[in-house]
């Protein structure tokens, strides 16, 4: 299945990883929970590279919603191309999106998902405004 990424989504990170034998379940394909781990790893790598480091005594990102749609099975052995996008910076949130395809067939999306990221004041346990530098980074 070919997934079109709307123009408002900005490609911010791309990585490749190998499917590990232990990622599979009893049915012989990658367990659905692993896809969320793949997306999480990409999101954390992008955030770290972008200077988005949570401060438990201050502010930082929290995921408030996550989803994944599965189109084709991934299994061992394989190599996956993961692309991460961001969009829709609002007052306290932005959206992250991810596509996963086999490196051998990058035009065929096997899974696509994402997460809503909210900026939180950790001591107060309340949403707070996205820093301007982060909003600009998402919207550029």
UniProtKB/TrEMBL annotation:
Pfam families per record: 4HBT_2
Entry keywords, A to Z: Hydrolase
Single GO MF descriptor: hydrolase activity
Annotated CDD domains: 4HBT (cd00586)
InterPro entries, per the entry: 4-hydroxybenzoyl-CoA_TE, HotDog_dom_sf
Keyword Hydrolase found: yes
EC number: 3.1.2.-
Coiled coil: none
Superkingdom field: Bacteria
Family of this protein: Belongs to the 4-hydroxybenzoyl-CoA thioesterase family.
Protein name, UniProt field: Thioesterase family protein
């Amino acid at each position: 299945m070919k997934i079109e990424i709307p123009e408002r989504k900005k490609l911010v990170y791309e990585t490749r990883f190998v499917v590990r034998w232990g990622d599979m379940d009893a049915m012989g394909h990658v367990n659905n929970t692993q896809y969320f781990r793949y997306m999480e790893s990409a999101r954390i790598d992008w955030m770290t590279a972008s200077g988005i480091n949570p401060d438990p005594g201050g502010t930082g990102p929290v995921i408030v919603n996550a989803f994944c749609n599965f189109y084709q099975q991934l299994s061992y052995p394989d190599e996956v191309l993961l692309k991460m996008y961001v969009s829709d910076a609002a007052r306290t949130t932005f959206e992250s999106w991810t596509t996963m395809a086999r490196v051998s067939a990058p035009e065929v999306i096997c899974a696509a998902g994402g997460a809503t990221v909210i900026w939180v004041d950790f001591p107060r346990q309340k949403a707070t405004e996205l820093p301007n530098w982060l909003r600009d980074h998402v919207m550029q």
